Amino acid sequence: MGELPNMQGAYNEIKNEDVNIIGIVEDGKDNEKSVKKILKENNITYTNIIPDEKLWDDLVSLVGAFPTSILVNDKGEILKVKLKNNAESIIEIPVLKKEEILDIFNKNRK
Length: 110
What we know:
This protein is α+β, with helices and mostly antiparallel strands. The protein folds into two domains: 1-51, no CATH class; 63-110, no CATH class. It contains four helices and five strands, in the order αβαβαβββα. The chain has helices spanning 4-14, 32-41, 53-58, 98-108; strands at residues 22-24, 47-49, 68-72, 78-86, 89-93. The longest helix has 11 residues, at 4-14. The two termini are 23 Å apart. The model has no long low-confidence stretch (mean pLDDT 76).
């Protein structure tokens, strides 16, 4: 949750551009009321979604570290992935093929 204010600040700076921020609340399925309360209390105005089963299976279940940021262009191509796999380590992944990114996610799940 510590990244919420930073993400909101970034959103405030770019919200009038052709860029967007979308949060995925990985543990929100069973905590929807709590999630909405936390977002409201922290004045979070960018879109946050609770993943359905497909999004969970296709993306969220593959992410081994939170928070993870994925930069995607308007063609849906992944440009950069930044994931935090422990309190002191941040991994930045440049433009890679989907399979290479999934491989990195899977290695960091262990």
